[in-house]
Write a structure and sequence with these properties.
This protein is α/β, with parallel strands linked by helices and about 290 residues long. About 45% of the residues lie in helices and about 15% in strands. It is built from 11 helices and 10 strands. It is globular, with a radius of gyration of 20 Å.
Length: about 290
């Protein structure tokens, strides 16, 4: 796919996906959603990509959906379409966050400016969130007379707790990076020119020292266990993973590199060497 709304750049095993409509504060369209989905699929297939960093071009991260398209529809006075039912329509933001949920590569948000609506909800499905001092966040759905999107009603309370999630969503206010840090939404705040270096430093720590297969497995274990009914489910999957990995070439390299006091060079690849039980959750697919 030829990208028009995002940039896709791989350097030293780190992929940077940049939302690239700075004249619109990187507001998303259907085209943006399609490009993000394609980029995540592409990254999962590429063993040279070890970590994905998301950021925005210009002074904003993402101003949410491009409301100019919706405004044209409302202004036209067209009759509303027939209700498609609960399974007849899929929110584009949710397609992105669910794809991130199943991603095989660790994901880092480097939020450089305003992140409103989908601009913030897309970050909830990422593994770590760093903020610029210039970042602003807003779950503004109640002020637009709509509901939470991008599966954020699942992600947000799990990240920050129900009380904080309720306050941010019920008020719909835009709040600064300091409040996001206090509320547990972001990991750290950085000066604008130090944001990407901090994100890349974290990404390099992963890319240079860890097994890609183990990273993918542990990422999925933690995300998928958020919905488990009992720790026994985690125990069963841990046991499968330990058994599958205990005599692998990666495990040997992990031991020998430690004993020899050198950086590891893990040979196994996410594209070809995931254990047989993976992806276990697709045995019980959601509809």
């Amino acid at each position: 796919m030829q990208y028009e709304h995002i940039l896709y750049q791989v350097t030293d095993n780190i992929l940077t996906i940049t939302l690239n409509r700075p004249e619109r504060l990187n507001a998303v369209t259907d085209r943006t959603i399609s490009e993000l989905l394609d980029a995540i699929d592409r990254a999962d297939r590429d063993d040279d990509v070890r970590v994905i960093v998301f950021t925005g071009a210009g002074r904003g991260y993402c101003a949410g959906a491009d409301l100019s398209e919706r405004a044209e529809t409302l202004a036209s006075g067209a009759a509303p379409a027939e209700d498609p039912g609960i399974d007849g329509h899929r929110d584009g933001g949710g397609l992105v966050t669910l794809r991130l949920f199943d991603c095989l590569k660790p994901t880092i948000a480097a939020c450089n400016g305003a992140a409103v609506g989908f601009g913030v909800t897309m970050q909830l499905a990422m593994d770590m969130r760093l903020a610029s001092e210039a970042a602003r966040y807003g779950f503004v759905f109640t002020r637009r007379a709509i509901v939470m999107e991008a599966a954020s009603s699942w992600f947000l309370p799990r990240l920050v707790g129900p009380q904080q999630a309720m306050e941010w969503v019920m008020t719909g206010r835009v709040f600064p990076a300091e409040e996001a840090l206090r509320g547990g939404l972001v990991r750290s705040i950085h000066k604008p020119d130090e944001l990407l270096p901090a994100a890349y430093g974290l990404a390099r720590e992963i890319a240079e020292n860890t097994s890609p297969v183990s990273v993918a497995l542990n990422r999925q274990l933690m995300w998928k266990m958020l919905g488990a009914d009992h720790p026994m489910e985690a125990h069963r999957l841990d046991s499968k993973g330990i058994y599958a990995r205990r005599l692998s070439e990666d495990a040997k390299e992990g031991v020998f590199s430690f004993m020899e006091k050198r950086k590891p060079n893990f040979p196994m690849k996410v594209s070809t060497d995931m254990p047989a039980f993976f992806p276990w959750w697709k045995e019980r697919p959601f509809r």
